[in-house]
Amino acid sequence: MTIQERARYYLSQRQTVKAAGLMLRLIETEPTPENLELLADVYMQQGLFDDAKELYLRVVKAGLK
Fold first, then answer.
1. Domain 3-64 in CATH: superfamily?
2. Are the CB atoms for 51 and 37 separated by under 8 Å?
3. Which of 19, 22, 44, 59 is the Cys-Cys partner for 11 at CB 3.0 to 4.6 Å?
4. 41, 18 contact by CB (below 8 A)
């Protein structure tokens, strides 16, 4: 099971702290749009809307390049 799959599993179980921890460590080495979007999804479930917005904007900007 990949880190992303584990994070999605935790997110589906509403274990957002575990999901965020995995994704925060992963984006240090792999800040791909997919990873940033998954972390933004975690932040949305946690109610961290400003943090999520920043990540979603990074994803959009990466797609425009």
1. Tetratricopeptide repeat domain (1.25.40.10)
2. no
3. 19
4. no
Segment 19-55, tens digit of pLDDT: 999 999 999 999 999 999 999 999 999 999 999 999 9
Spatial distance between the Cα atoms of 8 and 20, rounded to a whole number of angstroms? 10
Closest CA to 35 of 18, 48, 19, 13: 19
Sign for the CA dihedral angle at 11, 13, 19, 20 comes to positive
Domain ranges of the chain: 3-64
CA dist., res. 21 & res. 32, Å (int): 16
